[in-house]
Amino acid sequence: MASILIVEDETAINELVKRNLQLVGHQCVSVFDGKTAVSEIQNQSYDLIILDIMLPGLDGFEVIEQANKTPTIFLTAKNSLPDRIKGFSMGADDYLTKPFEMLELLARVEAVLRRTQKNASCFEAGDIKIDFGSHQVFHTGRLVECTPKEYDLLEVLVNNRNIALSRERLLELVWGYDFEGDTRTVDVHIQKLRKKLDWDDRIKTVYKLGYRLEAGR
Amino acid sequence: MKQRIFLTTLALFLFFFNLGIFIVSVTMFRDTVNRAEERILGEHYFIASALLKDFIAVESRGADLDGSISLLLKPYSYLSGDNKTRLALYKNDQLIYSDQNASVLEDNSLKPPVGGNRLATIRKASNQTYVIVSGKLSDPYHSYTLVYLYDTTEAISSWSHLKNNLFLAGFALSILLAFGLLLVLNRIFRPFKQISRTAKDIAGGAYETRLPVSGGDELSEMAQSFNHMAEEIQLRITELKNAADQKQQFVDNFAHELRTPLTAIYGYAEYIQKAVMSEDDSLSALQYIMSESRRLQTIAFQLLELANLQNNPLTCEELKVSDLFHSVRQTLYGKLAGKYIQIEFCSEIETIRGDVSLLESLLINLIDNAIKACGKDGHIDVRAAMENEKKTISVQDNGKGMTQEVLSQITEPFYRGEKSRNRNDGGAGLGLAICKQIASSHGAELSFISRPGEGTTAKITFTTSQ
């Protein structure tokens, strides 16, 4: 649960980013131009800023100068190398170009939050509590034994909660690109997680797509 | 080229110069020898005739001729006063008298010619050069041969000295000439070198390089035309570069223009596919997908229109300006509703030649921009008039205006006055590019005058006499 400021002048994209971030439980504020962004940053403290470069009023580079070192991810259509370099040299934590994929945006936000230690140290849903620091899972206060892969899978599901993840994507994210097993490995681990955590109703099978953890909405 | 000229000139000079020196020295040598010969012949003649008289005198006294010969000859040995002459007398090839130092003659058997002639020869012996004259005495003493010898070593050596000096001086002069020639040639060839260097520079990409033009000779004329050529090349290159830059800008802008709606469409589709959402969420996501698709469609349509304008000839006809204004006003009616903008049409000319729909869309575009610039309480003045004997239509607003920098780029495709590319006011950023194209296909010029805060005037000036 982080508070995130989205600065993007295109309403459609601003709304899209906001919805995606809200799915995984972040709190978002949308602003549409540079001047409002600066005053918003000065009035309130944010854990992260998602910042476009081409903005009316002040542009993204001018905004980041007044961002008081708030972690910032540039989200822009400018994908030339000089622009990227300028972005990073001005203190951006990451640089994402349009068009972007939902999971990529979430992963990068997650990574920046983890680096800047603004990430939640634990996650709770119903009877289940997950401690990210010690990699431990509790069911109504009792420790649940999980294999490392089961824990990794659980963490991916939690970080991308409310979003459907395909079996292939899960395989990629949990087991890595070079894993040679097939997607049934995913099904087996999902079954085990459901049983151990009593999460039959939360880990949903999405028809023709994969699995989705529904929590915290 | 320079080297060739240098070498041939130098070779020719050296040849004729040395030939001259050679001829002069040969002539001098001849002269020296001739003079010596003449002198000796004279002296020989004198001695011979004196000796003859002496012989006759001796014989008439009845004395022994052969015994008194050395006595008779002695005084002649000292005739010339210096030690350069020698005297010898032969009788029937027998030496009967000679000077003490006449050793030269001993090993040279002289055969004077038969008859009264005298023989003059030049002879070299042990570093000495002699002129020798031998001749028989006249009758009755023709058995006697008088040989007279003159040492010309000094004259010859002074000649040889002179000759050496001449050649030495010639050599020194040749070196000087070579240097001088080199300098002169360098000077003459400097402009050529400069031209070739400049040409190389230009070929290497330094198109602003020019030759210095001085004086009024052929070279400066050549430099002038060379500079002219360089200028033309520079101009063409700049034009090409600008065109390429513009194209690149267009492509960049186009890519950017496509990227935003595509991001939204893809993003919302992914959202619908994967996210947990309410009915409302999914409906609004669909709404975004549709509006962004429409935006892409608008861009495609306008690009096509721009391309068509560039390629197709237009159908021109005589139009009534009042009719044109009327239909424009009708189209704009919807846009003006609720915006509190006053718009005034004023026509001072009757007709104008052009394509109805294109001129209409041109005017609507311009007025549309004016409306966007005005906001509330705006005033827009549309006027058709004659200016400097040319028909013009102008659209004047009292809106926010633009800076000079923005003004210079507004007719470029996808250009946005604002730094961001906010599409909240609709449009694909191709409006003014299309306007410009419509104007130019009518043979008209589209110009803008604007000041920030004071409003903008767009003016179409029909340059052709239509």
TrEMBL record, chain A:
Residues 120-215 bind DNA. Residues 120-215 form the OmpR/PhoB-type domain. The modification 4-aspartylphosphate is found at residue 52. InterPro entries: CheY-like_superfamily, OmpR/PhoB-type_DNA-bd, Sig_transdc_resp-reg_C-effctor, Sig_transdc_resp-reg_receiver, WalR-like, WH-like_DNA-bd_sf. This is Stage 0 sporulation protein A homolog. One of its GO terms (molecular function) is transcription cis-regulatory region binding. CDD domains: trans_reg_C. GO terms for biological process: regulation of DNA-templated transcription. The keyword S-adenosyl-L-methionine does not apply. Residues 3-113 form the Response regulatory domain. It comes from Ruminiclostridium cellobioparum subsp. termitidis CT1112. GO terms for cellular component: cytosol; protein-DNA complex. May play the central regulatory role in sporulation. It may be an element of the effector pathway responsible for the activation of sporulation genes in response to nutritional stress. Spo0A may act in concert with spo0H (a sigma factor) to control the expression of some genes that are critical to the sporulation process. It comes from the Bacteria. It holds the Pfam family Trans_reg_C. The keyword Iron does not apply. SUPFAM superfamilies: C-terminal effector domain of the bipartite response regulators (SSF46894), CheY-like (SSF52172). Keywords: DNA-binding, Phosphoprotein, Transcription, Transcription regulation, Two-component regulatory system.
TrEMBL record, chain B:
InterPro entries: HAMP_dom, HATPase_C_sf, HATPase_dom, His_kinase_dom, HisK_dim/P_dom, HisK_dim/P_sf, HssS/ArlS-like, Sig_transdc_His_kin-like_C. Its main location: membrane. It catalyses: ATP + protein L-histidine = ADP + protein N-phospho-L-histidine. Keywords: ATP-binding, Cell membrane, Kinase, Membrane, Nucleotide-binding, Phosphoprotein, Transferase, Transmembrane, Transmembrane helix, Two-component regulatory system. It is an enzyme of class 2 (transferase). Signal peptide: none annotated. The chain crosses the membrane at residues 6-29, 166-185. GO terms for molecular function: ATP binding; phosphorelay sensor kinase activity. The keyword Protease does not apply. Residues 186-238 form the HAMP domain. It is found in: Cell membrane. Pfam families: HAMP, HATPase_c, HisKA. GO terms for cellular component: plasma membrane. Its EC number is 2.7.13.3. It is a multi-pass membrane protein. Residues 253-466 form the Histidine kinase domain. PANTHER family: SENSOR HISTIDINE KINASE CPXA. This is histidine kinase. It comes from Ruminiclostridium cellobioparum subsp. termitidis CT1112.
